[in-house]
Amino acid sequence: MRHSWDTSVEVADMLLAEAALPTQLPKLSETERRWISTRSGSSRKGPPFEVLRAAVDRAAETIEAYRKAVPEGQVPDTFPLGEGMTAGDMVQVLSAIMAVA
Fold this sequence. Notes:
The protein is mainly alpha-helical and 101 residues long. It contains 4 helices and 2 strands. The protein is extended.
């Protein structure tokens, strides 16, 4: 018995995964662009609230675009994740983490 590897299955999986990625992701907001362009490269000061808010909003839009793009569908925002947290709550948490990052 000899083992053979059919790469066509791997290629098909890769193409399907690529097709499931959203193409219309939000760009940097004008608020974010303005802050980036005026910020000194050596500054250790974090962004002001309005920049963080814009980044959180953009991250939430990005998460929603990815959630809608998956072929198997998405869980509703009300889906319980345990200890009182829902899928919708987790989107907000991840948006904040992404914005800070």
